[in-house]
Amino acid sequence: MSAAATAVWGRAEQQDFRSRVRGALLGGAVGDAFGAGVAGLTLEEIRTAHGPGGVIDLVPAHGRRGAVTAVTQLVLFTVDGLIRAQVRRDTGAWHPPTDVHRACLRWAATQRDWGPDERRKDNGWLACEEWLYTRRDPPRASLLGLGDERMGTLEDPKNPEARDAGALARSAPFGLLVGWEPQLVCQLALECAAQTHGHPAAYLSAGALAVVVHGLARGETLEAAVRRALDLVGVRPGHQPVTDALTAALGAVRQGVPDADRVSALGAGGHSEDALAVAVYAALVSEDVRHGLRLAVNHGGPSQITGAITGALLGALHGETALPPAWLAELEGRPTVLTLADDFAMEMTQGPALHSPTAAAPGWLARYPRG
């Protein structure tokens, strides 16, 4: 796999890109934290606990307001893997799926270890963040898929029957590779999803999300980005559940005032493609980020995942300043998310100044080791 030629970035373009990266990663984390408080509840149970309108503000989960789940943990390690993939291009050993897989294995270590293992030479800075060493409802298929060193591929995927939204939940960062062509972004997301979720609907949903985020990060409208995803995913074997779900999300926009019952109908199956449809619909009809997230989490599906995906979509579309500041203020791990977002933006826009055959920044290579 090869990427398109690196774009020439002006200062305004760099600032816009960084705002969209921050928006996508912070928005995803905020949506995750918002949905975590009602994850696992039916719509009726949510309404009983929070009133007829459902949950409208952050509520405690995992012992505090603003706590994130394994969704955000995996997104952060995916971004770490993408940065390292770019750094490793200088070595001639460039294979992004392998770098993302290694990063996800570092996440898997956080789920079984008490804290960072200082003996590991490839930890970098993210795997040394002690707050990440806690279990927050990790998807079973993700734990199984990353339970050994073997990397699943599209030809030989891990967990061939896994159709839940675990791989989808970590796939928004691939869309932030704006220097790549959309078909390459889609392919990378598919290959990385197959490392844990081998059902076609699961990895094709992940590819579709990556293409949608990619369009938004490039300044496209959400509807245009969804239609491109339909075109690219629609030629793949096994696409029908995913393309049907996306088509249903687009059609639901024209069916009247958005409400929780319409969202629940889109997510009735509980599969990866259903979570994607809920998130796309909520983002399409949202009046603002807060409204979109409320639509995304008030249903009986995986609310932390649909909240995270909707937050990532709206953050990539509008940038970080559109996110609810009161929710950001309580977000667990916000400094880590911000630092990683800015590092990703810097790597993608100024990578040659940080590492190349003629330049090397030792501090950067310590943060993102090539090994």
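Above is the first protein from milestone M3; the second protein from the same milestone is given next.
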Amino acid sequence: MQLTHYNTNFTKHKFPIIVVSDNVTNAPNIGSLFRVCDAFGVDKLILCGNSIPMGRKMTKTSRATEKSVNFEKYESALKVIQNLKSKNYQIIALEITETSTPIHTFKFSKENPIAIVVGDENFGVSEAILKLSNTSIHINMYGKNSSMNVVQATNIALYEITKQML
């Protein structure tokens, strides 16, 4: 028998993880980020950018998780990252770079809380934030395309991080 939201026996757990979106502005992506953060017990979602859509398209995708996920909105992702870094967060950019590490080989530390930075749908994580990050991780891909949807990548990253933290 298939289980529903009401009869699963998953243990609720909050992880010391903040997801910072660096100018993610597509309403369905924002809604999906709420759902992912809820599913993986993320401590907080921080939405950064000039125009973060919080309307009907976002809430249709979020399935009301914007009501249960702790979130904040700011214009500058760079200022958010500088602040989190000053509070001893591990700043981890989810981005393919010349020096990024494949996520499946990276060992996430439980010593300090994690801020995982996900980037703009077209341009990724900004260069300024990449420079401030403690490290960059990427998801190996085996097809012709060299990128995937920001929410799908966030799903994979949060799965790996929380799996290591349990």
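Note on the second protein: The mean pLDDT is 95.
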